[in-house]
Amino acid sequence: MTAPLAKSTGEAVVPPDTLVRLESVSKVFGKDDEGHRALDDVDLEIRRGEIFAVIGYSGAGKSTLVRLINGLEQTTSGTVTVDGVDITRLRGKPLRAIRRRIGMVFQQFNLMRSRTVFGNVAYPLQLAGLGRAEQEDRVAELLSFVGLLDKAWTYPEELSGGQKQRVGIARALASDPDLLLADESTSALDPETTREVLALLRRVNEELGITIVVITHEMDVVRAIADRVAVLDSGRVVETGSVRDILGAPQSETTQRFVAATVGNRPNADRLQQLREAYDDTLVTVTVTDERALGSVLSAAARRHGVDFEIVYGGITDLKHESIGSFTLALRGPDTGVLATVDALSAAGTVEGATA
Ligand SMILES: Nc1ncnc2c1ncn2[C@@H]1O[C@H](COP(=O)(O)OP(=O)(O)OP(=O)(O)O)[C@@H](O)[C@H]1O
User: Fold this and answer.
1) CA–centroid distance, residue 59 to ligand 1 (Å)
2) Per-residue model confidence (pLDDT) at position 181
3) Ligand 1 atom showing the smallest separation from residue 64 Cα
4) Engineered SS bond to 103: which of 172, 232, 284, 343, CB 3.0-4.6 Å?
5) How sure is the predictor about 3, in pLDDT bands with cuts at 50, 70 and 90?
């Protein structure tokens, strides 16, 4: 089963590897001057083949963003382009054609209780007018992909939350979408089931080549699955970049809060103050993607500069394909040696907070 990506219309001015682009998008609910600005001047670019996460607290505008991408809502200003087609003012048949190429996965699964698993997954195929035999083949293919072939004749209420979500994913894949929008798709699940569903979404991305937009309020989800992430705060994108960069060196206060809640390897301001009081030495926090490089810098520092070190805080965080380590070090030794060590650490990673 493959999901061939439809070709762009050719009229597009967007780069060919961009599947979704939002340009200066604002969405105001209610009257313009006294209305509520759910999204405010948002620019985003989602590339073909990636898993892109949008993270934000409740009310940040995440669901509104999803509804704009799948054409359920229209922008107040700005444009949304999907595969080269500006969908901002599309209506009727052309809009439906684009929407068929976008699959949706929901937090509450949205399965029909009166239909079996088969009936739920077959539903979009029925709507598309496929014959019974074709429906059966396709549903069998989809259910074996999500590991639920043996549950075809079961009703949703007999399934666990994780199984329900796997049915939801199978149904979303039924029409061979180019893009899957997963709106808080693991928020109703326990941690173990969350891991299973995220692993399935990764297979959807890697084996079927489907671009995925993951909407979440949990940095753990971003960390486990995404390539890039945008941080949404009160309707604005406050930071966007690779997961590695965002987790390694979060810039905005909102991002720092998300990262601190998940990663736990960077001291917060209070903890840093306690460490400063407890250690007379130079304290630095160094973030690296190659822990071995850090090890060799530190052993060279001891040898060449007579600088001793102690790890006073830190740890390693696993990302999708790599890991990042963040370590707060107390460096002690001659001033010139400590400075030379900080320089060498800067070459191995990102160094922050050198305090004498
Ligand atoms: N149809 C609507 N009419 C009026 N206000 C709306 C509408 N939809 C959303 N809003 C408001 O827009 C803001 C953003 O809502 P949205 O649902 O997009 O946020 P969210 O980040 O998805 O939050 P949550 O995680 O709680 O679902 C909220 O203040 C919300 O109350």
Assistant:
1) 5
2) 97
3) 18
4) 172
5) very low
Q: Which of 228, 163, 153, 151 is nearest to 190 (CA)?
A: 163
* Structural domains of the chain ordered from first start: 18-262 (3.40.50.300), 269-355 (3.30.70.260)
327, 295 Cβ separation under 8 angstroms: no
- Tell me the ipTM for this assembly: 0.95
Decide whether any atom of ligand 1 lies within 6 Å of the 38 Cβ.
Answer: yes
Confidence of residue 223 (pLDDT cuts 50, 70, 90): very high
Give strand pairing partners of 323: 318
pLDDT of residue 261: 78
Query: Does the CB atom of residue 314 touch ligand 1 within 6 A?
Result: no
Torsion sign across C-alpha atoms 163, 165, 171, 172: negative
Q: How far is the CA of 36 from the centre of ligand 1 (A)?
A: 9
Ligand 1 centre to CA of 192 (Å) is 29
State the pLDDT at residue 356: 44
